[in-house]
Amino acid sequence: MKLFDSHAHLASERFAEDLPDVLARMREANVLGCMVMCDPGDDEPDHERALEIVRQNPGFRLAAGVHPHNARNWGEEREKTLRALLALPECTSLGEIGLDYHYDFSPREKQREAFARQLDMALELDMPVQLHIREAHGEAMAIMQERHKAGRLPRGIMHCFSGSWETAKVYLKMGYYISLSGVVTFKNANKLLDVARNTPADRLLVETDCPYMAPVPMRGNRNEPAFVRYTFERVAELRGADPEQLAETLWENTIRANS
Ligand code: NI
Question: What's the CA-to-centroid distance between 194 and ligand 1, angstroms?
Fold first, then answer.
């Protein structure tokens, strides 16, 4: 059995000290695939480090995009760097991009601009997007549905999805994949349990979003790709699925969704 972590910030400073150990534990846990995220819009961009990690580890792939937190830095310069990354063979997805009205680290106007520009870019380059939507599902859905009707919505993944099954259905209808993080293992996961149970098997992914969001029983610690197995095990249990078979399906989904 092998697992794929569909969203990991391995180039984060929080792995700078002990990345070889993190990678060794990952292999031991049979987490052999990884989408490594990078953000050329960050105040301290991590794309060079992320690319180095991807190149050194077979089975790893790169995703590049300007996060809504960093949308305030969006402009010609960052767009140029992003385009260069997206042109690399290692880079298979544009993300994470979206709207975050929980933290509001960037003005909403700027978040909407960076989001729209990057959705257009994904269409232009025929690449999937990884979406980060937090406390902005109403607006994100409106934008996406309008684009969907006009044939202007790129394909993609709802990363770290933590909404209700009603919300998930809307994204599934638009062809999106649902990626579940450690949140599904939390005691207060209630509404997410139905999402884990009801999402069609061929549209489901699992991720860590490490170093954040560590699943139970690691909650409160730094998260790492090896821990995706706890999320996977919880999802398999909720679905009453055969773990071997589910692992294989999720592996194929992750590759297909990020291609
Ligand atoms: Ni993330």
Answer: 23
Place of tokens 């009707």: 149
Residue 189 pLDDT: 94
Given a cut of 50, the residues of the chain with pLDDT beneath it are none
- Burial annotation 116-133 (CB, 10 A radius, 16+ → b, else e): ebbbebbbeeebbbbbbb
Cα 10 to middle of ligand 1, angstroms: 10
Identify which of 62, 69, 67 has the alpha carbon closest to the alpha carbon of residue 85: 62
Check if the beta carbon of residue 108 is closer than 8 Å to that of residue 75. Answer: no
- Please give the Cα distance from 40 to 37 (Å, whole number): 10
Q: Of 77, 22, 9, 87, nearest to 49 (Cα)?
A: 9
For residue 111, which of 75, 69, 165, 54 has the smallest C-alpha distance?
69
